[in-house]
Design goal:
Elements (H helix, E strand, L loop, with lengths): L4 H8 L1 H5 L7 H9 L6 E5 L5 H8 L3 E6 L2 H11 L4 E2 L11 E6 L11 H11 E12 L5 E2 L5 E2 L4 H10 L3 E10 L7 E9 L1
Parallel strand pairs: 1-2, 1-4, 2-3, 4-5
Antiparallel strand pairs: 5-9, 6-7, 8-9
Amino acid sequence: MPRDSTSAFYEDYAATYANRTRSLPKQQLDAFLAGIAPGGAILELGCGGGQDSAYMLSQGFNVTPTDGSAELARQAEVLIGRPVKVMLFQELDADSAFDGVWAHASLLHVSRAELPDVFARIRRALRTGGLLQASFKAGEAEGHDGFGRYYNYPSREWLSALLTNGGWQNLAIEESDGGGYDGKPTRWLTVSAER
């Protein structure tokens, strides 16, 4: 895979990024976990420093953490004490293997052209009735941030149409104001949907 500016950022700044002060999205995590049977199998796409996986493991879930950056995966392994699979979203090839997929601030780096295929792969990886939760930085057109990271910046309407066309059920998109690693005010879209 060519080393694009997004990949380069996460490889070069893995330790700084993984060990930054970050508040756990506990409210969203708890709401997501409430829809999954105790001990259920969860795939985390883009686990970053591993904090969300560590929390889900502490709640008794069977978590498979993944990240596209080998350096970030190493950082996460230190925190959670188990292997992290190095994998791009486009390489997901599971079939009915998970009860939930958690993709917090990760799928926002997938190009708009590749997003339909990635969502189809996620849907296939879930069991019937399995849950997806993903968050995106809202916008109208794809672009890059000050660190050179690519973002797809979808609108609520664009994302809703994409998921509906992809066959997802019980789709909900919540909007909220927050921030990101770049320290800039951010409008977030949090998607929950069911296979």
